[in-house]
Amino acid sequence: MNIIRNHYKKLGYENKYLDIRLKEFKKQVILNIIILFIGVFIIGILLYTYLFSPDYFVGKIVNPIMNKISNLYESDNIIMQTSNLCNNFYSDEDKIKCVNHFFTEFYEYDEHKNQSNVFANPQELINIGGCCRDASLFYSSVFSLMGFTNEFIYEPNHIYNKICKEECWIIDQTYLEKVEN
User: Fold this and answer.
1) Angle formed by the axes of helices 92-106 and 77-86, to 10°?
2) Which residue range is the domain that position 6 belongs to?
3) Cβ-based burial of 143 (10 A; exposed 0-12, middle 13-18, buried ≥19)
4) Which residues are paired to 171 by β-bridges?
5) How confident is the model at residue 119 (pLDDT cuts 50, 70, 90)?
């Protein structure tokens, strides 16, 4: 504490003003220690949640973000036209295959290495390609407009969709399969 006292003396503080400054310094140190412990505690909880329950972490943190972006894309012309076109088919299976066929006709894989944005919007996805995250957002938006429910499925370094109405399907850029509910 003498180092701090000497520092404030050099700055011109004396007597009661020096005592006031030292008390303020002590309060600030205590407050910073409390903030540090709270930060470490929060980071510890997040790490514990992620390390021991990644599905919980992804579901609670990432799914709402992906759903929000997907909802924004629902007003995109490409998304609306795709859903309108494919919704004209009679069976859900034919509707799903229509969307999948449309998507695979233009899709090219791209990791966004030369782009500053994280997500490729539908127009960019058609023109320059995108990654699995972009494909999942595309599928989620189209199928949502068609009345399907969507669940984002996560694996290490990959994301894809499970869409359901009366039946459920797994779909990504290269794969389409009917699955049990």
Assistant:
1) 140
2) 2-49
3) buried
4) 161, 176
5) confident
